[in-house]
Each structure stands twice: as structure tokens, then as C-alpha cells.
UniProtKB/TrEMBL annotation:
GO CC annotations on file: membrane
InterPro entries xrefs: Kinase-like_dom_sf, LRR_receptor-like_kinase, Prot_kinase_dom, Ser-Thr/Tyr_kinase_cat_dom
Positions of the Protein kinase domain: 1-166
Organism per entry: Gossypium gossypioides
Name of the protein this chain belongs to: Protein kinase domain-containing protein
One Pfam family cited in the UniProt record for this chain: PK_Tyr_Ser-Thr
GO molecular function, one term: ATP binding
Amino acid sequence: MIGHISDFGLAKILSGERPNYSTNESSSLGVRGTIGYAPLEYGMGSELSTNGDVYSYGILLLEMLTGKRPTNERFKEGLSLHNFVKAALPDRVVEIIDPILLQESVRGGTAADIILNENNLGNDMHLKCLNSIFEIGLTCSTESPSERMDMSNVITKLCSIRDKLLIQLGYVVVFELCMLLNQQVIMSSLS
């Protein structure tokens, strides 16, 4: 199964188009949403809700970070993408993250290099931010609809993470410029 854009916003789409439509009634559409992305309560007959949309978003976020679909063969017998991520955080984020993202976050380093240097993980802003994004995905995809994060809070937290990364990037750029200027000063003093 592959998640589709139609998995997001089902509550608004179905209830907004037809005001007299009950989101709890059966339809010829069958299951509401794609397996793995639709919350458990939909399978039990609950009404469509924005909390269900938040769940779908959380699963998509976890999928993007791990590179694993919620329908992956690995997730059987009570193991789910949500539980897989939850068991790994916060100490083993390196083990579950999609290797492509990991390489990007360490600017070309390999997963083996990072695992060997685990003592430095706590200081790496990129991994801290990735861990925070995983936490958002977990909170959004929790089993209980009432415990899921509101999307306005999701946006606030994601913007905060983005800002932290941009500030760090700014410091890195300034540092690299200073190093380059220092090299230029040294070179000009030698000539």
C-alpha cells in the first residue's frame, strides 16, 4: 500500500462537500483512507475527524524519516512503524533513520562513522533536530486521538526546529567566512 494525498484532510473533504453527510455511515468507498495511514479508530467505525488526519500526517512523517512504509513486512505481530520508532528514541536515532537523511545531516559522513563516535551525537544539532521531528511524528500517530498533537502545535514546533537549524547554519557560514578571511590575511602578510 502507498499513502495517497487523499489520506490527508478526509474529515474536511467528506464533511465539507455534503453538509448532511454523516462521516460515520458506511459508503461504497469502503475503508476510509489507505491501510497503514488511516488511524485505528476508523477501522472501528469512528467518525472522520481532524485527529485522524493528524494520525495520517504523523505516520507519513515517520515514513519520511525512516524510509520504511507502515505496511513494511517488518511490522507484524504487534510491531508497527510507530512502535519501531518509539523503541529507538532517543538514543538509537542513528539506527532507524533513513541512511540518505543521515548522510545529509552529517555532511557526507557514513552511518558507521557516526555510530563509532556516539559520544558526539548529543552535540550534533542536526541529530537533535531529527530526534525532535521523530517525537512530533510519534505524538501525531499515537493510538489515542485525544493525545495527538494539534496541527497548529506541529507547525510551531517544526518552525522552531527550522529556525534552530538556520541559526546553526548561519554560524557555520560565518565561521567558514572568518576562516577564509584569516587565510587571506595570512597569505597577504606572507607576500
